[in-house]
Amino acid sequence: HVMLMDRVTTFGVPVADLDRSTLARFHQEFATAGLALRYTSLGRPSRPGYPSQRDLYLATDLLGRPSGYLTSEERWRTVRDLERQNKIVPVVGDLSGQVAMKAIAVYLREIGLTVSALYASNVEMYLFRQGSFPRFVDNVRALPTGPSSVIIRSSFGRGWRNDGGNAPLPLPGHLSAQVMQTIPAFLQLTSHPEFVGYWQLLTEGVIDLRVNPQ
User: Fold this and answer.
1) How far apart are CA 90 and CA 196, in angstroms?
2) What's 16's DSSP letter?
3) What distances in angstroms separate CA 116 from CA 45, 137, 204, one per listed residue?
4) pLDDT in tens, 76-122
5) Rounded to whole angstroms, how far apart are CA atoms 24 and 2?
6) How are beta strands 115-121 and 177-182 bridged, if at all?
């Protein structure tokens, strides 16, 4: 823990005592659980179906091909080099908030980069529930994107109305289905976000990866 916090202090970012204790706790979890580490959420135990870190490293895509960054020396070195060059930057924020996403958009425009992929998981479902989805649309619209930029989301089969059996349901043995949509298609669909529902995001103008895993 001492070595970890010594390194954190070199980043020049103010860290509160609560942040220090959280970092130490997470570090201890990784060290203790090792490859058996599983996702947990605050106040709830890990569900039996959640994959372990070992499961994730050994996971394959729908064609049976290993897909993790540790499956080859080349992939591992790519991620390692990105870390060494400080090109992997964690940002904590609300996807529908007024700070984090807007700051990312400004930064990307300043350095002349466009967004290739935005992974939203199933966060949009919660944004609909709390009424902040239109602000998320505004944040996505502010990002520098191109015709092939995509949003990737996960559908867990809940939070929407099953309308005719076309839901992106998980395959047997999987907790979620992954659905991809181009950002231009997303922005067209949500030109009037107050008239769009979560079901439409999962079913209209999307590329279902179960159908076309290529």
Assistant:
1) 30
2) -
3) 34, 17, 20
4) 999 999 999 988 988 989 999 999 999 999 999 999 999 999 999 99
5) 9
6) unpaired
| d(C-alpha 167, C-alpha 157), whole Å | 8
Cα separation, 56 vs 44, in Å, equals 21
Token pair listed for 5? 């916090």
Is 140 in contact with 118 (CB distance < 8 Å)?
A: yes
Which secondary-structure segment (H or E) carries 32? Answer: helix 17-33
DSSP for 133-147 reads HHHHHHHHHHS-EEE
Strand positions, DSSP E, the chain: 115-121, 145-155, 177-182, 207-208
Burial string for 147-159 (b: 16+ CB within 10 Å, else e) reads eebbbebbbeeee
Q: Which of 129, 108, 125 is nearest to 176 (CA)?
A: 125
Please report, as a single letter, which amino acid is at residue 113. Answer: L
